[in-house]
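ok, trying the design again with the full structure, not the truncated one.
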């Protein structure tokens, strides 16, 4: 367990006692004392301003104590303890994934669904490095079966956190995964996510997928019959070439974003691999297709 050093005083007693308990293998005692340390300023009757000043002066120590308390309560199965320590973990400016993971599990176990969703939304914003939060929020909204409400909630969240690329990605994913897919709206959202975070791998991959889906949907509507039948007889060469050019325009766009995703996350084949192979095939880039196919199948 990480330890943030600080000179002891009357309040610090509980922090130091917590580490001593942990050294002796007493996880429950350590968790209890970390929480006592966090709560002591309030118990002493300090004003909110005094508590805030104390926290700012020793932020690193208090943040570490909060993380330690939540982890130890969780590891001993004390979900009530997790929820008691949670407010102290949530005040950490740069979100710690475990703070939200443990809090969400505790809220779920206690049947506190509103709190679970609140924590999940906050986790998306404060812990963008944890992709699972975005995935869980997408799954949550899709299960509700109310796309209009989901988009309205996301608009409200984005208004509060306009710098969050993940929120724009989630909004785009809901458009893309909807029963009536809206590729244009999805692209608009993915584009905003990429503008906010040029390294947003999933937004790049998703953007590429929208162009491929455009072709699939047009094909289902009866477009490009010669191209997808493989018929390029001499008498229909001009029509075939016109269809080929139109299809390839979509795949050129898709390739651009999928190759961006590949450069940023070369190991994440499930994210972009098969789609990029299809681009190389449609664009008649056999060398690139063969190289990528071999690379993917050697892993």
């Amino acid at each position: 367990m990480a330890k943030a050093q600080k000179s002891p005083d009357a309040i610090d007693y509980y922090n130091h006692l917590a580490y001593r308990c942990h050294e002796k293998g007493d996880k429950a005692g350590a968790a209890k004392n970390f929480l006592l340390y966090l709560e002591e300023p309030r118990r002493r009757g300090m004003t909110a301003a005094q508590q805030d000043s104390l926290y700012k002066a020793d932020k690193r120590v208090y943040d570490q104590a909060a993380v330690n308390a939540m982890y130890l309560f969780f590891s001993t199965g004390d979900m009530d303890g997790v929820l008691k320590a949670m407010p102290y973990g949530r005040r950490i400016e740069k979100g710690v994934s475990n703070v939200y993971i443990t809090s969400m599990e505790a809220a779920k176990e206690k049947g506190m669904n509103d709190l679970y969703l609140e924590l999940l939304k906050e986790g998306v914003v404060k812990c963008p490095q944890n992709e699972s939060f975005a995935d869980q929020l997408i799954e949550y909204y899709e299960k509700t079966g109310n796309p209009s409400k989901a988009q309205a909630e996301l608009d409200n969240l984005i208004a509060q956190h306009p710098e969050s690329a993940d929120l724009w990605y989630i909004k785009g994913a809901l458009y893309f995964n909807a029963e009536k897919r809206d590729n244009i709206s999805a692209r608009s959202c993915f584009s905003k996510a990429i503008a906010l975070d040029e390294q947003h791998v999933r937004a790049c991959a998703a953007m590429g997928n929208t162009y491929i889906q455009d072709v699939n949907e047009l094909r289902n509507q009866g477009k490009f019959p010669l191209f997808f039948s493989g018929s390029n007889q001499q008498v229909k060469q001009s029509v075939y070439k016109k269809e080929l050019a139109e299809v390839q325009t979509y795949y050129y766009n898709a390739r651009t974003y999928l190759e961006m995703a590949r450069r940023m996350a070369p190991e994440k084949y499930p994210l972009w691999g098969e789609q990029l192979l299809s681009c190389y095939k449609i664009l008649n880039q056999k060398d690139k297709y063969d190289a990528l196919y071999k690379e993917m199948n050697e892993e």
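Keeping the full-length input from now on. The chain has a mean pLDDT of 92.
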